[in-house]
Specification:
By secondary structure, the protein is an alpha/beta fold. It folds into two domains: 2-119 and 299-364, 3-Layer(aba) Sandwich (Rossmann fold); 127-298, 3-Layer(aba) Sandwich (Rossmann fold), CATH 3.40.50.720. 32% of the residues lie in helices and 15% in strands. It has 13 helices and 15 strands. The protein has helices at 20-28, 47-52, 61-67, 101-110, 126-142, 172-183, 195-204, 216-222, 300-321, 323-329, 331-335, 347-353, 360-363, and strands spanning 2-5, 32-36, 56-58, 70-72, 90-93, 113-116, 164-168, 187-192, 210-213, 228-231, 257-260, 281-284, 287-290, 337-340, 343-344. The strands form two sheets. Strands 3-2-1-4-5-6-14-15 form an eight-stranded mixed beta sheet, sandwiched between helices. Strands 9-8-7-10-11-13-12 form a seven-stranded mixed beta sheet, with helices on one face. Helix 9 crosses helix 10 (323-329).
Length: 388
Amino acid sequence: MIFGVLKDKKIGEYRVVLTPVEAATIKEDGHTVLVQKDAGLAAGFTNEQYEQEGAEIVESTEEMYKRCDFLAKVKEIEESEYGLLRENQIVYTCIHPAAHPEQVQAILDSKSIAFTAEDSHRFGSVNCEAAGKQGALMGLNAMLTINGGKGKFVSGLAGAPGMKVLILGGGLVGRSALQVLQSLGAWCTVMDVNYGVLRDIGKTYNEKVNTQLSTKQNIRKLLPEIDMVINCVKWPKENKDFLIDRDMLHLMEKGSVLVDISNDADGAIESFRETTHEDPTYIENGVVHYCVSNIPGAIANSTSVAYAASILPHLRSILNNGVKEACIRDGFLRRSLTAYRGYLTHEETSAIQDRPWARPEDVLHIQEEKLDFAPPATPTRSTNFLEL
């Protein structure tokens, strides 16, 4: 195949989906590798480094889409790219399809084959780890007096107590934030709905981290003493309630910080609105909100290196075995198949957008094969099936 590394165009995005090391591996597998000019420059990888590994540098996005059988990038497909997609072309990127109906429609109209990368990670995404760790540091920066925060130092000083932090969600993002903050001396409480998760966190930190069941009532009771809240909950999109609504912000002291790493419109935080690296915070009811959507972009080199290594097996499997065989061999890749030649194959998107869908195993005609197992990517179910 002709494989292409696209340059991400989203504002504030500096990552690249593959580094020269992975480009060399794909080249050694016998494929042609095209890299859009300056795709890796902001992450620390020059055009010359890609060329040294056998890649060809291509000037324009249009030429990349025209020549490549298979394209990969980090973030969503931009509106300017919709008309460039073509039939049978394979795309692997973080589509976030349930939240982007126009993007989904463009993919379906093009009859391309699209994988949403965020659903394909067997051991959790490196981007989640990066968002949790760097998001915690961004929250500490927002806490500074000069940035509108109450001016507390994370571990405290002689005679001055350290910060009290509430982390909502004990998954990969939440644990990553906890790892940074607890090691810096913050007093941390983690809330989750899974007692097994809470028990494991307590064991990991020798019970030096408080854990509580995640309920609105428990959050409300704790907020008056909390300096910083970090939201790491992947909120079900069909749930119209909030874990923290606007009225609850009045419970927090002025200058407290709320970091919404999960970053969902209609998510767990009612007062959320997306911000950028250039203008990262706003203040509502005296609480400093940090709501940047692509936090990992701030540590573009480290995230690119780790992310590229983690997704390379998926890319090689598709390139070397084809879409059908790759989806048989890996259930996590199969569940991330979002669209296949005009058919929607993503269950959550079907439910949220009220679109008919087909199971990946049905549209690929692999029902009778010995399929690698993977659990559903989200708890959202849909019975709105297409007739194939």
